[in-house]
Write a structure and sequence with these properties.
Chain B: This is Amino acid/amide ABC transporter ATP-binding protein 2, HAAT family. The complex is a heterodimer of chains A (295) and B (265). The longest helix of chain A is centred in the first third of the chain and has 31 residues. Chain A has 295 residues and is mainly α. Chain A is built from 12 helices and 4 strands. Chain B has a single domain, classed as P-loop containing nucleotide triphosphate hydrolases (Rossmann fold). The two termini of chain B are 34 Å apart. Classes of the chains: A mainly alpha (295), B alpha/beta (265). Chains A and B meet through α7 and α8 of A and α2 and α3 of B.
Chain lengths: 295, 265
């Protein structure tokens, strides 16, 4: 029983991490038809930004208490700024050339990890976290690491915030409409490019937050973390339905749980395979993803 | 100044994927009333409208309210006062009716005219919370036209607003456009000649991506030889009866519907 509980909570934590990456990825693809292969790099930027700040380089930030909160905020902010710069400098000039656009994001997705490993080395760096978050707590006889709960809580908060933004604000309305028919949004007199930048900022912030908290989950940061998470985030996006935040949340939970349980009860590594099988099965049954609708 | 056309298009050319869709369209929209844009299927009517709005890459000159706008992005041109109801209605199916209308609001451009829209289309009020994707074709067309009336626009562009609609709804749409045109000039793309006869004062006819004829609508429609030559009326080759229950191949039924529409108005 305690093993099942531990696997379930760990799976949910992993799912939370996938969701933080996939939410932005899904919105960006849904709205702009851009497959952002640089999204994993944004996660890495957030992770390294947080690590750098918590390591004592940012005045006021540190590895404990409010200092760590400040470090996470700093990492998230750096990731957000990076996402906005990426959209303005690389994605926007290439809107009429989708093939070059994909290549540009692939290039950034390769260049950022290379840059990080050139500056701080290719090896994993221990991630400084507050003592309060490195312990465990008991749940139904299982000893569960606290950082899993932090990830799950953060993902839930991001999900609620995104739903409120999409459902309750004019910018959110523009994004939902743009996911369906971008040209018609401009034909109503709305500058949809501003929504593009906004969605990149939101997606970048979520991914960077995922990076910051992923450091807690893994206990370390390394340059390739974002790239390996990106693959599963793409699986989640496809399963959830392109452009659907709620679908991404459901799919992320499913993928996280299946991966954890399969890795534990079968051979390690089969979990990743199980995810791909799950994806194929879902696409055969419901080609448009879990939600079957957009946004 | 008052005789200057509201919208003056000169030598509009559109090339998509290496194919010349438009070669040189000239088009004036009069400062009042309805100007009909006519032509056979594939003549370039919808592309002309999309080219004017900048929804497809285009060259030439598009003057709106006396100013050149061909370099403006779509949203900037539209904000100068254009309401656009596209051929496929452009309704956002995953949004509610109210959200579809709210999208058409232009912050900073005066109060949106919900009273007018709800008076013309009471159903848009009663169905405000319904998803637009679950509406009938006629109701979706009401959303599309309602959006153009919300903003005190200077020009309304309606691309085949009666396409695929039941005769009763066609009558409703005609009535609304007739009323709208009393306040705002309308550029109407239309296959239904009964609609044109009822609403339009001026007409522009396209053929093979070029302007083939410009003049008063009544003059063209009174000339059977010209309508046959320019619009293909009488030849049944390009007619799709199921989709166009009142298309020009059946002028008798169309005229009857227009008459009953007048009776109901």
């Amino acid at each position: 029983m305690s093993t099942v509980v531990l696997l379930a909570v760990t799976g949910l934590g992993l799912g939370a991490l996938y969701f933080l990456v996939a939410a932005g990825l899904s919105l960006i693809f849904g709205l702009m038809d851009v497959l952002n292969f640089a999204h994993g790099a944004l996660l890495s930027v957030g992770a390294y930004g947080t690590w750098w700040a918590a390591d004592g380089h940012l005045p006021g930030a540190g590895s404990g208490g409010l200092g760590f909160v400040l470090a996470v905020c700093f990492g998230t902010a750096v990731g957000t700024v990076a996402a906005v710069l990426l959209e303005l400098a690389l994605i926007r000039p290439l809107y009429d050339r989708p093939r070059e656009q994909v290549l540009a994001t692939v290039g950034v997705g390769l260049a950022v990890p290379a840059l990080l490993s050139a500056i701080w080395g290719p090896d994993a760096r221990p991630f400084p976290g507050p003592a309060a978050l490195s312990g465990t707590f008991g749940l139904l006889g299982a000893h569960i690491p606290v950082n899993r709960l932090v990830l799950i809580g953060a993902a839930a908060a991001v999900l609620v915030a995104l739903r409120l933004f999409l459902g309750g604000t004019r910018h959110g309305l523009v994004v939902r409409a743009g996911v369906e028919d971008r040209a018609m949004v401009t034909a109503l007199g709305i500058d949809v490019r501003r929504a593009f930048t906004l969605v990149f900022a939101i997606g970048g912030a979520a991914a960077a937050l995922g990076g910051a908290l992923g450091g807690l989950y893994y206990g370390s940061v390394d340059p390739g973390q974002g790239t390996s998470l990106l693959i599963f985030a793409f699986v989640v996006v496809v399963m959830g339905g392109m452009g659907s935040v709620a679908g991404a949340a459901l799919a992320a939970v499913g993928v996280g749980l299946v991966q954890q349980f399969a890795n534990y009860y079968t051979a390690s590594g089969l979990g990743d395979l199980a995810v791909v099988v799950l994806l194929a099965a879902l696409l055969l049954l419901k080609p448009r993803g879990i939600t079957g609708r957009l946004a | 100044m008052s005789t200057e056309p509201l919208l003056a298009v000169r030598d509009l050319a559109v090339v998509i994927g290496g194919r010349h869709i438009l070669h040189g369209v000239d088009l004036d929209v009069a400062p009042s009333g309805v100007t009909a844009l006519l032509g056979r299927n594939g003549a370039g009517k919808t592309t002309t409208v999309r080219g004017v709005l900048g929804l497809v890459p285009r060259t030439g000159s598009v003057r709106f309210l006396g100013e050149e706008t061909v370099r403006l992005p779509t949203h900037a041109l539209v904000r100068r006062g254009i309401g656009y109801a596209p051929e496929d209605r452009g309704v956002f199916s995953a949004l509610t009716v109210a959200e579809n209308l709210r999208l058409a609001e232009r912050p900073g451009a005066g109060e949106p005219a919900y009273a007018l829209v709800h008076e013309l289309f009471p159903e848009l009020k009663t169905r405000a919370r319904q998803l637009a994707g679950t509406l009938s074709g006629g109701q979706q067309q009401m959303v599309a036209i309602g959006r153009t009336l919300l903003n005190g626009n200077r020009l309304i562009i309606a691309d085949e607003p009666t396409k695929g609609l039941a005769p009763k709804v066609v009558t409703e749409v005609a009535q609304v456009l007739e009323r709208a045109a009393q306040a705002v000039p309308v550029l109407l793309v239309e296959q239904n000649l009964a609609m044109v006869r009822r609403l339009a004062e001026h007409c522009v006819v396209l053929a093979d991506g070029r302007t083939a004829h410009r003049g008063p609508a009544a003059g063209l429609l009174a000339d059977p030889e010209a309508t046959r030559r320019l619009l293909g009326v009488g030849r049944r080759t390009d007619a799709v009866p199921e989709e166009h229950p009142m298309a020009p191949h059946d002028p008798g039924a169309a005229a009857a519907a227009a008459d009953s529409a007048k009776g109901g108005a």
